[in-house]
């Protein structure tokens, strides 16, 4: 029911896919919030994948292990983005 309420309240929102915009290219962006969970010390990963200028996939999740540096947290996030890209390319 919550999904239908959300959809009804966002009918003025849209994703605009542009034909011919970077054809056959999936753009991936990732970021990490190093140590964002103050209780566990785990970082948060965010990934968005774009095709034809609009989102086709996105995720935000807590990383499974505690990173010991911002660089490690960013590498884990980039790895998730690469994994999502491989999955989408195979789709």
In short:
The protein is α+β, with helices and mostly antiparallel strands.
Feature tags:
91 residues, alpha+beta, 3-stranded antiparallel beta sheet, 32% helix
Word description of this protein:
The chain has helices at 2-9, 70-90; strands at residues 26-33, 44-51, 54-62. It has two helices and three strands. It starts with a helix and ends with a helix. It has one domain (2-90). By secondary structure, it is of the alpha+beta class.
Strand content: 25-35%
Number of strands: 3
Order of helices and strands: HEEEH
Structural class call reads alpha+beta
Q: What strand line-up does the widest sheet have?
A: 1-2-3
The value of Rg in angstroms is: 16 Å
Q: How many distinct domains?
A: 1
Sheet with most strands: 3 strands, antiparallel
Mean pLDDT figure: 91
Shape: flat
Low-confidence stretches: none
Helix tally? Answer: 2
Cα distance spanning the termini: 30 Å
Q: Helical content, roughly? A: 25-40%
Topology:
Layout: H1 2-9, E1 26-33, E2 44-51, E3 54-62, H2 70-90
Antiparallel strand pairs: 1-2, 2-3
């Amino acid at each position: 029911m919550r999904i239908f309420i959300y959809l009804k309240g966002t009918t003025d929102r849209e994703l605009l896919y542009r034909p011919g915009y970077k054809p056959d290219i999936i753009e991936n962006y990732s970021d990490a919030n190093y140590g964002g969970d103050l209780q566990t010390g785990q970082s948060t990963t965010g990934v968005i994948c774009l095709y034809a200028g609009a989102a086709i996939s996105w995720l935000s999740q807590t990383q499974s292990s505690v990173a010991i540096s911002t660089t490690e947290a960013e590498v884990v996030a980039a790895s998730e983005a690469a994994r999502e890209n491989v999955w989408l390319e195979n789709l």
